[in-house]
Amino acid sequence: MVQLLGLALASWLLSSKTPPSRAAEIQTMATDLVQRQDEATMRGDLHALHQVLLPNSKISEQVGKKAMQRSAYMQDWARARKIQFDSVTVHVRIDRARWVSPDEVKVAAADQARYGYHHLTGNESRAWFGLGVMHRYVFEEDKGRWYIKDDTFIDPLNQDTRLKGAAVPAVIQVKPESRTERPPNGGAARALEYAKTYCGAAPGCGHNNRYNPHYADFNWNGGDCSNFISQVLRAGGFAETSQWSWNTEDDGTAAWVNATRLAQYLRRSGRVSLYASGTLPEILKPGAAGQTALDQLRPGDLIGYFETGRVVHFAVVAGFDPDGYPVVMSHSADRYREPWDLGWDRTTRFLLYHVHYPAQPMKAEPIW
Q: What's the pTM value of the predicted model, to 2 decimals?
């Protein structure tokens, strides 16, 4: 199925190149429309959202419906976590465009959004995170105005967004307490420097917001989160093995590219320790010393996201925001210091791993 999606994307983009005279027009138009779309979605402003969607179109009607589902989730999550979204600033990176007609263009692009927020508890310091999402847009001009006709993308907020109260934990709300973030060293520092450099399209990421070209990009072919986390761990000093490695054929072993298999390998190899797992209320239950499992996270540790009987996603802990809330980096979608549970719901089980980084990079082991 994912291979068919990749083939469909390739077919969708095959066409003549964008006329040079219209390239700047597309950039300006796309950035304006997506900025307004994202801002309307963040604030739950249905009227503003309708201003950017093509009128009298069944396709754009579905785009609007999905946007409002995402909006409901974001507001629900923010209320439950006592967080206020303040702003969103968007840049659209256009990777490919195809003109269908003089008034319709298909665009493959990254929505690079920087979200500002603050906690309603704690010291209420302002913070921000970056989110980079790959989209396939269809823009259409009608009566001298451009609109979004269609919008297909890898949704980082697709967890039960149709259910009222999906983001609200069953028992407890998150009340992050101030943590002192100690700078990581050794393997964790190397891993996080790599993660920051190659976390992709999200604002805040390095390398001109591009992935490491040495590795394939699986965004449209099953997801790239495990591939990225494996790269992070390799940069942290772990040696590749016959079970966990990248090869020269633009592919990796199952344990390198698949979240469930990566989780299994890391535990068997002793490179990580699973020290807590459960739903949000469960991992926030204080222990004998008054600390929760979340309090024990360290920069460079891993969080696994478990749904429908399997691990479906991995992220690396980047540190904490000014109010002590854990933030992460990952691929699919690309995240830079995003609140660790944004995009997940009350059914998700979280797996918290301490990573045992080597002090010095390990010598390569034979790969059979």
A: 0.90
